[in-house]
Amino acid sequence: MADKSTFNNKLIILITLVASLGGLLFGYDTAVISGAVGAMNAYFINPLDSDNVLASGAIIEFKSIISVVSVGVLILFGYFLFKFFKKITSIAIVIVFLLITIPLFKIYFLDLPEVLTENLRNSILGFMTSSALVGCILGASFGDFIANSVGRRNGLIISAVLFLLSALGSGYPEAFNIFGIQTLSSFIIYRIIGGMGVGIASMLAPLYIAEMAPANIRGKMVSCNQLAIVSGMLIVYFVNYFIVQGQSEEWISSLGWRYMFLSEVIPASLFFLLLLFMPKTPRFHVLKGKEDQAKSILDKLNVQASSDRILAEIKKSFQTKKAHWLFYGWPVIIVGLLLSIFQQFVGINVVLYYAPEIFKGMGVDTNASMIQTIIVGAINLIFTIIAIMTVDNFGRKKLLLIGSVVMGISMIGLGFSLFSGTVGFTSLILMLVYIAAFAVSWGPVTWVLLSEIFPNSIKGVMAVAVAVQWLANLVISWTFPIMNNNPFLVDNFNHGFSYWVYGAFAVISGIFVWKFVPETKGRSLEDMEQLWLKKEK
After folding, report:
1. Which residues contact 118 (CB under 8 A, 6 or more apart)?
2. Which residues of 102-118 are buried (b: 16+ CB within 10 A; e: fewer)?
3. Which of 221, 213, 225 minimizes the C-alpha distance to 443?
4. pLDDT digits (tens, 9 = 90+) for 324-341
5. Residue 270 C-alpha from the chain's centroid
6. Which residue of 139, 209, 335, 403 is 20 to 30 Å from 58, comparing CA positions?
7. CA-CA distance, 290 to 443, in Å (whole number)?
8. Quick one: pLDDT band at residue 3, thresholds 50, 70, 90?
9. What is the C-alpha separation between 333 and 314, in angstroms, rounded?
10. Over the stretch 125-136, which tens digit does the pLDDT of each residue have?
11. Single pTM value for the model
12. Percent of the chain with pLDDT over 70
């Protein structure tokens, strides 16, 4: 936006801290489930084994929820297709997809008998655990519509309300069961609601910060959102630990898991209240034709001389505000989508979600694995802070390249240590080095780039990129236990195979960054138009 001396440090930092609470809740909500999986299995799933009527009802509702969610995701991604392709092409793609998937969905899912087999039991448990990720996809898909209709700030307020509803409904799904369904299904719906809050916040929090911060510190400010995400994860690890400390398994299975979810009410309430006092972004005001309000906010963020110039730049960038999403060609779209995909395919959430199980697989006992999980969270936090201090000086591209190289070496090395059966201190060090490399690079820098690279006139593409990121997260989270527990792969590779896969993706991500990702350090958001127009020519 301006030179160092022309912007209001205190106001920008305050806005960043408040918006970053959305990131904290993002991390909090996605990680809270890790401490409750065992208790939820005992509370929700085990009773199905001894009650056929209850099991039959749960299966019918499970099929219904999956069907509704699938239709919702299909409609949203169909909408995105119409933004990219011509009407006839989009319709043809949708028809072909439906002709292939509907028969398969019916035969291999809907037509399954209402009998609780081992596979179906695991499917229900798995979906109950990961249902928030489905909500994340839906929430991120709505992000563009929400951002452009009610605004970035108001969209974050909506996400805060969703976090509150999810915390209450997940903690006491019986008391808040307004749907007339089983408690298990009520819990799943409230987790999806919370996931929608995460999806909205994951797009709008970095976008809100990016549109408020000056170019020379924008990377640092947006990276604070990633710092908040990993802080939320670390905080909830401690919250879960203190909730269950010294308690019996019976108490944890009946009440302890409830307190884990209810604890989210505190940060969600704080987020909601503080947002009420935050301004809307100047770019949203210009989008709605309210230039006076935009000028007023810019005057508070900058000295008057620079705010006039910035307002003129914003107005110019919105001259093509209704541009087709391919107005700047495919390069910007592909770069944005692949940044999101690679951030997940390097395997980070496997490490974060399954850390206790991974450590147990290395021969570590339960108590030690929980301590090492906290160490993972601490390393994640420390190196995210380092990224914040370096991203605006060192540059986005260099950090991504360094991260890819170190992650690739660490993951491949970890795979060989597991393959050779020499797990121990070396394996732990390799995992911590991997976490540090991700935290200083792909963790925060991906969000910085996603908030920067899309010109104002096609900013809605960020919703697709974020939705694809959550879809990639879901794919990786589901496929890890499949690969890690596959008898053939275990017999031949001794749990090392999946880590080689993630290491290979890390190497490929580095080549992608080297060849195709532009450096955006120091560029204004309005400069993005010229960057991609030049590339298209």
Report:
1. none
2. eeeeeeeeeeeeeebee
3. 225
4. 788 777 888 999 999 999
5. 21
6. 139
7. 35
8. very low
9. 22
10. 878 887 888 898
11. 0.81
12. 89
